[in-house]
Amino acid sequence: MKTFAAIDVGSYELAMKIFEISAKNGIKEIDHIRQRIDLGTDTFTTGKISYGRVDELCSVLRDYGEIMKSYRVDDYKAYGTSAIRETENTMIVLDQIAQRTGIQIEVLSNSEQRFLDYKSIASRGDAFNRIIEKGAAIVDIGGGSIQLSLFDKDTLVTTQNMKLGVLRLQDQIGRLNIRSGQYETILDELISSQLAVFKKLYLKDREIENIIVVDDYISAVVGKNIAGLEQESIEASAMGGFLERVREKPLPEAAKRLGMPEEKIPLLCISGILINRIAQMMDAKLIWAPGVSLCDGMAYEYGEKNKMIREDHDFEQDIIACARNISKRYMGSRRRSETLEKIALTIYDSMKKVHGLSKRERLLLRIATLLHDCGKYISLVNLGECSYNIIMSTEIIGLSHTEREIVANVVKYNHMDFDYYDVMRQNSSIDREAYLTAAKLTAILKIANGLDRSHKQKFKDVKTTLKGEQLIITVDSSVDITLEKGLFTKRAEFFEEVYSVKPVIRQRRQ
What we know:
CATH superfamily of the largest domain: Hypothetical protein af1432
Number of strands: 14
Shape: globular
CATH architecture of the largest domain: Orthogonal Bundle
Number of domains: 3
Helix content: 40-55%
């Protein structure tokens, strides 16, 4: 058994959960500590976290450190989200926190944060699996933005981020100096324009029956037998009535009735209005608020990595499904991508002893094969650059910024001569380790692409064998492969440079 602490440095509050995790009993929460620190208002208003806020944050983190000692915590993770991610002085803030508290905070990219929130829902097991059997959407509401993720037959198919977080909206409305009667109308205008674009691009004929809510406000009152919200799952039509009952009461009375601080009530109303508008847009029937948080996702991921809990859901398949849908959006050839994926992974698996990469890098290669030609949607001439720009501008849930940059470079240099590190880093934040990963995966993709250069899927079967300093690629084909052999040489040169292994094609006629 392990005792694990998960710390979430959020936009509105600092939360820590202490868990006991074991293979026998799974994940058990044993304590939950929360402290309000409004980092988001600083970041979203001024672009920086003030010294006073940093001082307050360090004070609370030192207390959290003492609590971890009292529980004899074996390990911890501390993650910062949008308030720290979007501030201009991120590195200075993180260094001060580390020096003054000893706690190292890692900043999550938006896609990593939302993926952990998604895992926190999945930690609910059977209830989660039942909800996503039919068309479902996750509405993940944060301080700076919201994430809308759509499921089709229990597979995550698309996810999009919108700058509609509750703190950001509250700040925007606060600057307008509007009358109380205008509040909901103005808020509706801020929300509706972005939701209309989402509906046009991603909903179309898709039926969404269930909405899963992750937030700090509505989730805090659903299921607590107050204000008419008696269960975790409620009819979508009940949300409007609940909001009316909250708004018609004076602020102190509403706060007392709901058991939350007065300053949280406006944020609860914004979150409720967001959920209500999304439910109406999707014509959803049911809203499920399981009451989970980022901390639960952190514990789930820790249990996974340490093989103390069993995965009931294939999260890697969700990432692949999202990549396939991005490819589809940019008119990618599914048949061509599947051929390329099969060849590339065959080469990757036969080169394990040489490349020294892991299962995670294998996933990045799969994604690169799926998105290898997305840039042709914009230009057939500047295919590499256009592909790079599309991938870097498109969120792929579950991937960090660095991983997305690796994929973008692999796809880019599949179509172009590879740039060496000193040249690449002039226009990129990529570090040496990521650069070498990109080089190794690019070398494999170039070879795989060369084997299907005619885009006619000439090979019925491709087998690879590593023999000494040669990679023997045996292809089953009864047709002429002169083109593939002729264009293979240049691509093979880069592969040999990266691995000191020469790829050789051998044709076996059927």
